[in-house]
């Protein structure tokens, strides 16, 4: 089997899809869940041995936040046990591991954006397993970069933007939680930053580090939904729902199995310094680009 510098997991996911589009075929072997099943950690070492990557990029994860509450064993297999296998392999073979984590490792009780050095205290099975995956990587001793991000959305896969647009076509009113804060972050931005870090590492190998990666600014799920609908209206999309018909509600009015952090804001200054950036693009820029792409695809589909 041909050896390639990079092994990329989870190409059917939002971030994996974007990374796959940026990595050339000569650079990476790109694996779907069928090829590299993180729910079966005992199978992964053989695949890694076969490909012998110098870099493992792992956006694959169990991300069904509410479902994880009833599937903790599966969430652990994917988010902890398989991550530990990859990290251990990377340590033995002097490979770099790039891994993606989440704002859900925090409990959201601070009144400021979270720093990488803040203590973790996850509220849910999902958050707990992602936190344990981070620990497994650090304890393995492999050279690694962990990127914590928040409220991810992209042109591929399911996400909040697509859900709101779908509901806006069939409903004339909607209730959305307004007391949880965070920064919607595009999968395209996450992929670009990953590539920028790889370029830096190629020039001068980076030390192991955890970074917070999110778009600049912050919003609530309610204001986010209003922005999506307003943008779609402005673009001429036929909707039943108007922005003013979206009602703001408290988290308690929308009970879900997994508790969410009220504050998901991440302080990204450490990563910005590493990349030499004054700031990241705003969350609105990323969201608008996704909406415009979705609407463009819909328009082309209607024309054919």
Concise overview:
The protein has nine helices and twelve strands. Strands 2-1-3-4-5-10 form a six-stranded parallel sheet, with helices on both faces. Helix 3 links the parallel strand 3 and strand 4.
Give the amount of beta strand, in percent: 5-15%
- How are the strands of the biggest sheet laid out side by side? 2-1-3-4-5-10
Class by alpha and beta content: alpha/beta
Put simply, the count of helices is 9
Shape: globular
Q: Indicate the radius of gyration in whole angstroms.
A: 19 Å
Helix content: 40-55%
Average pLDDT over all residues: 94
What pattern of helices and strands is seen along the backbone?
EHEHEHEHEEHEEEHEEHEHH
What is the makeup of the main sheet? 6 strands, parallel
Low confidence ranges: none
How many β-strands, per DSSP? 12
Give an account of the 3D structure.
The chain has 304 residues and is an alpha/beta fold. It has 9 helices and 12 strands. α1 links the parallel β1 and β2. The longest helix has 21 residues. The protein is globular, with a radius of gyration of 19 Å.
């Amino acid at each position: 089997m041909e050896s390639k510098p990079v092994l990329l997991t989870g190409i059917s996911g939002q971030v994996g899809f974007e990374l796959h589009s940026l990595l050339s075929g000569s650079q990476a072997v790109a694996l779907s869940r069928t090829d590299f099943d993180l729910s079966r950690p005992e199978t992964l070492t053989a695949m890694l041995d076969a490909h012998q990557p110098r870099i493992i990029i792992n956006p694959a994860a169990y991300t069904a936040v509410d479902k994880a509450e009833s599937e903790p064993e599966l969430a652990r297999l994917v988010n902890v046990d398989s991550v530990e296998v990859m990290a251990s392999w990377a340590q033995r073979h002097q490979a770099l591991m790039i891994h993606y984590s989440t704002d859900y490792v925090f409990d959201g009780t601070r009144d400021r954006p979270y720093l990488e050095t803040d203590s973790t205290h996850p509220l849910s099975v999902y958050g707990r397993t992602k936190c344990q995956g981070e620990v497994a990587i650090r304890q393995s001793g492999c050279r690694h970069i962990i990127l914590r991000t928040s409220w991810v959305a992209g042109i591929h896969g399911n996400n909040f933007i697509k859900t709101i647009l779908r509901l806006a076509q069939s409903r004339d009113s909607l209730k959305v939680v307004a007391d949880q804060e965070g920064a919607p972050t595009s999968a395209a931005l996450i992929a670009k930053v990953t590539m920028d870090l790889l370029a830096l590492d190629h020039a001068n190998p980076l030390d192991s580090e955890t970074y917070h990666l999110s778009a600049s600014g912050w919003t609530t799920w309610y204001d986010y939904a209003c922005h999506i609908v307003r943008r779609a209206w402005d673009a001429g999309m036929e909707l039943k729902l108007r922005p003013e018909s979206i009602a703001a509600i408290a988290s308690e009015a929308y009970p879900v199995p997994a508790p969410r952090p009220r504050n998901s804001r991440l302080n990204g200054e450490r990563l910005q310094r590493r990349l030499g950036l004054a700031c990241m693009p705003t969350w609105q820029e990323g969201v608008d680009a996704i909406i415009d792409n979705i609407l463009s695809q819909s328009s082309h589909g209607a024309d054919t």
